[in-house]
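Field notebook, page 237. I keep forgetting to write these up properly, so this time I am using the form the group agreed on. The chain and the ligand, zinc ion, are recorded exactly as supplied. Prediction of the bound pose follows.
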Amino acid sequence: MIILRSCRVFGLLVSHYSHGLGSSGPQSSRLYASWTEEKKRPYWKTLRRLILGAPSPPYKKVVQTGDPVLRLQTQLVPQDRISHPDTQVILKRMVHILRSGDCMGISAPQLGVPLRIIALELREGMCKLPSELMAEREIHPFPLKIFINPTMRILDSRKLHFHENCTSLHGFSALVPRCHSVEISGLNEKGDPTSWKAHGWAARAAQHEMDHLDGVLYIDKMFPRTFVNLRWQEVND
Ligand SMILES: [Zn+2]
């Protein structure tokens, strides 16, 4: 899922590592243990799990990096299964998550479903960046687009370099090169053929979601030294 956020200035990026990974002694042992210990589930969550059982895909929350589903090569949806209630539930859940957060794209694997489905939408209310940034990034609202078994054709291979992020890597961002324009073709929620020519920021979102279908995350394509925790300044406060 790609997120549209207000512009942040990534000026001075200084990392403070007070605990070296190579250090030894009781303090580093405790630190290591805190990273590796499984977090205890609160009582009410334990109770809910006992009553309702473990959640199953499509999840109501976006899976996070580390979940193997994000690295799978996804499967085509058989055309005669598009109208099946199970497929429609996945589509509805994707649209719900798309609209309940400040994101403009989502893919089925992000809900734990390794199928080739993406959904994108940029609502007017999400375009509240300064006008010069909107123009620079070519951000324009567009209505809901659902693509089942999509393919992508590059229309303009000029590379644009902007920061992007993903709800499956919550709280991070990096500079990622993306082609200026692409065309996405596939089937819509009714199983009818559909295509869309996307430019600028919409094209970035489309390429990001298409990558998810091949188990690719933006961190595989980013400029590594631009990778930032969006809250690094808060941590220092
Ligand atoms: Zn993503």
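OBSERVATIONS:
- Residues 5-26 have pLDDT under 50 and may be disordered.
- Residues 1-2, 166, 168, 208, 212 surround zinc ion (CB under 6 Å).
FOLLOW-UP: compare against the apo run.
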